[in-house]
Amino acid sequence: MIAQNDSLQSLNGKMVKVTEKIEETEENLKMLSQKMQKYYKDLKAQISQLNQDLRTMPSEQLFSATFNQKEREMRTLKKQVKELDDIIRASKESKEPHQRPIESIFLNPPTFPTYFTKPERHPHFLLTYPFFPSATSSPPEYIPTTYRSRGTKATSYTSKDKGKTICLSGSSTDSQDLTEAPPPK
Questions:
Q1: Are residues 83 and 41 in the same domain?
Q2: Residue among 160, 153, 161 at smallest CA distance from 177
Q3: Which domain holds residue 85?
Q4: What total number of domains does the chain contain?
């Protein structure tokens, strides 16, 4: 028990030191932030003063050494202000969490790797397929017997309403391809 109390007390002492350091750092940051804000305001005031001086100069001094010196000084001050703006912007961006827009699973479903590829179809075929077959679409799988070539085999099927077997022969080119056969037993 005594060992546990000693370890807890040492942890408590370390936690107190850490919190003191954090508070000290926060105070330093506040002071730096205030100093930075004051410096920023001073730079802006100097820029506006130089700008005012340049505007009130007589026209004969526009190409003198003092005009050039004030113009250079104004450029360096503007550069310093820009650097401060960049630092402030970078610190704000690092503090803000990066938020991504919420995406709907229905609008943007996740993609998974697959071994199968989707068959490609002509856009015209996709628009007309079930309702309006066109001449540019793929040929039908069923070819009537009158259009079959001579080398095709004869197939047979049983008619449901009469119970008769009908033989389709591909060897004949005339329209008398349908022959009746006795029903199978």
A1: no
A2: 153
A3: 61-94
A4: 2
- Extract the tokens encoding 31: 């002071």
Token pair 């002071």 is found at 31
Q: What confidence tens digit (pLDDT) does each residue in 3-40 have? A: 788 888 888 899 999 989 888 888 877 887 788 888 88
Distance, CA of 74 to CA of 52 (rounded, Å): 11
The pTM assigned to this predicted structure is 0.36
Q: Is residue 87 part of a domain?
A: yes
Contact 165, 183 (CB under 8 A): yes
> Of 40, 60, 80, which marks where a domain is finished?
60
Tokens of 87: 């630092």
43 CB contacts (<8 Å, ≥6 apart)?
Answer: 77, 80, 81, 84
Q: Is residue 166 part of a domain?
A: no
Q: What CA dihedral angle connects 31, 35, 36 and 42, to 10 degrees? A: 160
Compare 83 and 57 and report the one with higher pLDDT. 83
Gyration radius (Cα) of the chain, Å: 45
**105 CB-side CA count, 13 A:** 0
Alpha carbons 46 and 74: distance in angstroms, whole number: 8
Where residue 104 falls (left for φ over 0; alpha for ψ -120 to 50; beta otherwise) is: beta
